Task: structure prediction
Amino acid sequence: MSIVAEHGLSSRLKRTHLTSQLGESLNNEVVLAGWVHDVRVLGGISFLLLRDMGGIVQVTAPKTKAPAEVLKEIGSLHQEDVVCVRGTVVTSKIARRGIEVIPNAIEVVSRAETPLPLDPRGVQNTLLETRLNWRVLDFRSEESNAIFKIQSRILQSFREFFSQRHYVEIQPPVIIASASEGGAELFSLKYFEKEAYLAQSPQLYKQMCAISFEKVFTVLPIFRAEKFEQPTHLNEIRQMDIEESFATDAEVMKVLEEFLADCVKSVSEHCGEDLKRLGQSLEPVHLPVTRISYSQAVEMLQKNGEEIEYGMDFSKTQEKKLASLVGKNAFFMVDWPMELKAFYAMPNADGKTCRAFDLIYNGLEISSGTQRIHIPNLLIERLKAKDLNPDNFKSYIDAFRYGAPYHSGWSIGLERLTMKMTGRENIRDATMFPRDRNRITP
Ligand code: ATP
Ligand code: MN
Result:
């Protein structure tokens, strides 16, 4: 048996998307391709709601006007079948968009099996687990579709922002030979005769590039092998990072807040429809973003009955509470105690705190950064202070022996930012194919 795929009607050249183009085609013939959102066959008339990336349009086939084969084909359709329709665009008093298409030919490209394991029209009431199991259908729901279009816009705004400012996009490896931060848990893998790890951060590689290219950015996956239970934590994360030479922590914080404000503006401007579908409106980020010190944050929480001592990290609940106490959609926490940040964070003159910062957006940490130590002897000292063996970090330290400007950088979690911009409670909603303690498929 041979299967021949013929696509007479759907040839790319002839196809019109259901976007604004359709209104311009009034009284003209168009070829549309998409998914059957709904189909209704009544006595004298059949309706087909056709959906593509631009939206939904009504295809109306009155018995008196549409060819018999077309009526028969529409009668055979089910939800999520993929079809091509050729027809004339006319004005309509009842259709949602004020226009409808009267078909003169229809071609079925792919039939969907019935019943569907998930109805993309009503996922609001479906368990997240079921939606993740049937992501392929869930992506077609208004909600998920909107979330990932917004995510795509976030990425676009990141790349545009930094390309326009002449940062170089770099491609660090994900398979690494040793831990970049020490301490935190890593996934290990067999790499021929050796043992290797999945990177928990592109730290060393970003720094090596920054001390040669000056200003770099990257988007890449990283891995954290902890048994997280929170709705804010995944085991595979996408990070948007920059690293910059001749820049202090304060300078890259300024870049970070400018990017965040720009990103929020860009999503508001370009994704209005998507935000509306999610019942979300974005407040602009006002610059400069408020800065509070770590110790101020601890005091604020203590005064409000939280159990926290200087030297402890904030729980996610405390982070949220702090945000409501600060009363801003975005703020920085600066001057962290050295114990709470990685060995490569540049110490402050007080000998206690370091040049590290966290950015909290809508009540959740979305980014962390530091000025890095670019002085080999200071790195060795800090490694020892953290009970790490400098011998294990030889290639890292050596990278700074041949001309290394001072430099700083940060990292934004893409899923955390998407989650907060789209107003989701669970990071998995904002992750195309989440990897967590229990899930590695699809
Ligand atoms: P947290 O304290 O919230 O667990 P972290 O301080 O360990 O995060 P960093 O090492 O600072 O995380 O990573 C930079 C950014 O990457 C974070 O600000 C966050 O946006 C994102 N990120 C880190 N770990 C995770 C995770 N497990 N799941 C989702 N996003 C993460
Ligand atoms: Mn952090």
Q: What stands out?
A: Residues 200 and 222 are 5 Å apart (CA to CA). The radius of gyration is 27 Å. The pocket of manganese (II) ion (ligand 2) is lined by residues 358, 365, 368 (CB under 6 Å).
